[in-house]
Amino acid sequence: MTDQNKDSREQSPEETGAEAAADAAATLENNDDYTMENGYQWKEPPAFDIEHKDNCVCVVKVTIPKSNLNAMLDEIFEEVNDSAQIPGFRRGKAPRKLLEKRLGKYARSNAVERLAEYATQWLADKHEVAPIAPPEIEGLEDAENIATDEDLCYTMTFETAGKCELGAYEGMEIEKPVAELPDSAVDSTIENMRTRFGRYEPLAEGEAAEGDQVIIDFTGTIDGEAFEGNSAENYPYILGSQRFSPEMETAITGAKAGDTVTAEVTFPEDHPSEELSGKTAVFEIKVNEIKRRELPDLDDELAKRLGHDTVDELRESVRARMNENTDTQVRDFMREQARRKLVECCTFELPKTQVERAIDGEYSNMEQRMVEQHVSAEEIEKHREEMKKDAEERGLFMLKSTYALQELAKKEQVEVTESDFEDYAKRMSDEMQQSYEIMKEYLMSDDMRNMMEYQIKDTKALDALLDKASIVLKPIDDEETDTDKNEDDKEKADA
Amino acid sequence: MMEYHKIVDRPIVTEESQILREKANQYVFRVNPKANKRQIKDAIEEMFRKEEIKVVSVNTMNCRGKMRRQIGTRNNGRRAHWKKAIITLRAGDEIELI
User: Which CATH code fits A28-160?
Assistant: First the structure.
């Protein structure tokens, strides 16, 4: 066995082949065990002639010694014999020769297939060259009639996983936005809460102003003629909500209960109804009632309705929640920065198909989103080039960041523990307002678990990166954060 | 004389025939029912002329064709009757049937 292997080694002409063979020889000297993880045992290990090309493409010439093929055929016939029904024989009793005549083609192609698969596995295990997709194989087209007295030779072409070389990521500058939460922000949030508890109370006297709810009857005519949807009775309308045209709003503003006002409204040219576009209508509006919104006083009673004992407590809890909110935002912002910087400082070698797939996926995602937002097909068509460019950028970035984070996680020895999973599930259950048990069960299914592991790992890797980065504090304009927060809080309050 | 391919129809390859072959160097054929033992012997020797075999003895038996029922009709038929020949070769001779 050893001699044969030497022969085949001497035959391999290229340098890389010799190298590969040398590797094989090394394993040969170290131990005579060619058992693979899946339990298959090579009679003689296959020889590889590996050639690396650009874009992670790898061309490998594989030589599998014939002894393996024969052993594999024996194995397959043994398997087959138990199940094959040959007329005249009980199962498992047919002679090998008959089986070979009847099932030879199947057995041979099957054997070759298995050997090729094992060889690829072996290649990945021993030479650390692993394809990311099934390799393209040349030279095995006639596997059915393969000669059993020759070594099995073929060429595989495949792409390996991309490579990422981490740059100097330690000590990169990350901006940390800092902003003191102003009292006014807290106040406005509480004001919002009050508004939600506000009630419309009928106003006996006084004029309709913005923010008031008016109950109106109205009839509209164009050149003295009625049109569709021109009138309504007891219609509740909130001034300033801008659902009616501004002319009508100004007409109603200032009116008293019982007043009748008129408004001239010119419909825009692009009004969906042909009947109305560009026409001027006269609306006669009778104000039946004016209701004004009464806000509850900011006192302990309101606090109690919101689940707190006193106003101060309410204020504190609102402040705490807002702070927490900004903290997560800041953290996310910093992580995103770290991700970008990391990708910038690394060098990549990426397989072409994977890049293409990432870009295509990103593009179809964008298209899907646009369709969901009811963007017309023509509009999409118009922006196709732009979107493609955008998708290219984003897809590439995503792919790169995946690789970079993987590499980083390896280097920083980031591990995902069970408690991380639980934290994540807890956070998700808070966010989605689901009970923790349901969330956990959902997240612990295998698919979700994998996804979750990736996410947690990425986050942890980024955090590790942030730990090593130099943080630059950057104060933010109050105004900016103010509006940001207000919007946030509104959302929260609405929820 | 009938030609040999008209005499010998086909070899019968079954578990039983394999056992006969291993234990007694006997080979089993399905042959023309009209053929006699001498004809069968000649035909086999002629068929495997290259192997230069010698047939020591020929045992024959007539097998009745199996009844076959025609589903949906009253016409019941049967498979053809046939003759089985068990041929013993000279010790050491061998032929390839599979």
Answer: 3.30.70.1050
- Tell me the per-residue pLDDT of A92-108, one tens digit each, with 9 for 90 and over: 888 888 888 888 888 88
CA dihedral sign, ordered A300, A306, A307, A308: negative
Type of residue found at A164: C
What is the rounded distance in angstroms from the CA atom of residue A113 to the CA atom of residue A118?
A: 9
Min CA distance, A105 vs chain B (Å)? 16
Is B97 a domain residue? no
Express each pLDDT in A139-150 by its tens digit.
877 777 777 788
Q: Classify residue A190 by burial, with Cβ atoms within 10 Å: 0-12, 13-18, 19+.
A: buried
Question: What does the alpha-carbon distance between residue A456 and residue A450 come to, in Å, rounded to a whole number?
Answer: 10
Tell me, yes or no, whether B15 lies in a domain.
yes
ipTM: 0.84
Give the domain range for residue B30. Answer: 4-89
The residues, any chain, with a CB within 8 Å of residue A71's CB and separated by 6 or more, are A43
Task: For residue A98, list chain B residues with Cβ-Cβ distance below 8 A.
Answer: 13, 98
With contact defined as beta carbons under 8 Å apart, do A371 and A379 qualify? no
Domain locations in chain A as residue ranges: 28-160, 199-294, 301-349+412-494
Please list every residue in chain A whose beta carbon sits closer than 8 Å to the beta carbon of residue B17. 88
Where residue B81 sits, what CATH number does that domain have?
Answer: 3.30.70.330
Q: Report the residue from A90, A93, A98 with minimal CB separation from B13.
A: A98
Rounded Cα–Cα distance for residues A488 and A491 (Å): 5
What band does A494 get if pLDDT is binned at 50, 70 and 90? very low
Task: With CB atoms and an 8 Å threshold, state whether A89 touches B14.
Answer: yes
- A199-294: CATH topology is Chitinase A; domain 3 (3.10.50)
Give B98→chain A minimum CA distance, Å: 6
Contact A208, A252 (CB under 8 A): yes
CB A88 to CB B98 under 8 A? no
On whether any CB of chain B is under 8 Å from the CB of A95, the answer is yes
If you average pLDDT over residues A377-396, what whole number do you get?
83
Q: Which residue of A has its CA nearest to B96?
A: A97
pTM of the model: 0.56
A88 touches chain B (CB under 8 A): yes
Is residue B23 domain-resident?
yes
Interface check for A89 against chain B (CB to CB < 8 A): the answer is yes
Q: Judge whether B36 is closer than 8 Å to chain A, CB to CB.
A: no
